[in-house]
Amino acid sequence: MKITEAEFIISAVRPEQYPEDALPEFALAGRSNVGKSSLINRMIQRKNLARTSSQPGKTQQLNYYRVNQKLYFVDFPGYGYAKVSKVQREQFGQMIETFLGDREPLKMVLLIIDIRHAPSKDDCLMYKWLRHYNIPLTIVTTKADKIPKSQWQKHIKMIKETLEADPHDRVVLFSSETGLGRDELWEVLLSQMEETTENTVASE
């Protein structure tokens, strides 16, 4: 997809702060430092629009990025960082659960997992949440450039088994460094937008 325009819109913590233009939304969920911001930057071909940080737990709101006036990336707070207080973790959980349970423009969640490591308990909980709410999801395994290509399928198998994932779940191998998976992930997002538009039209 050719990117002609990409901009940061708002850091939201409450539903009344969410954009009201009803553009399709694709949320990114994953543990702290898994590479969500780097993935957004690679997808929109901007170096620093999504703020990357060496300090895990930096993102504490839902960060909205609008692309080509057609869709939003919504960057969730990273979970599982020890230095974030228990109260903050509970607030994150409530904020995300509110969003997942009641956000009509949400088309899909990208569950971002570092291919080098088994999913954490929080990853598994997020996966179960998404299944509970019947939200379409795609598993995106980041940092694929950090392990040999010959190991990719073995690691993907380990990730799906740990998540107890549905065999039909799509997995996209991704590297923000090399651009691996960028075109494939755009195909996933655009086809999901087309599918939901067709379903809406059919139901009217």
UniProtKB/TrEMBL annotation:
Domain EngB-type G: 22-195
Known cofactor(s): Mg(2+)
Record-linked Pfam families: MMR_HSR1
Keyword ATP-binding recorded: no
CDD domains per UniProt: YihA_EngB (cd01876)
UniProtKB keywords: Cell cycle, Cell division, GTP-binding, Magnesium, Metal-binding, Nucleotide-binding, Septation
InterPro entries (UniProt xref): G_ENGB_dom (IPR030393), GTP-bd (IPR006073), GTP-bd_ribosome_bio_YsxC (IPR019987), P-loop_NTPase (IPR027417)
Family, as annotated: Belongs to the TRAFAC class TrmE-Era-EngA-EngB-Septin-like GTPase superfamily. EngB GTPase family.
HAMAP family: GTPase_EngB
Purpose: Necessary for normal cell division and for the maintenance of normal septation.
Protein name: Probable GTP-binding protein EngB
This protein's encoding gene: yihA
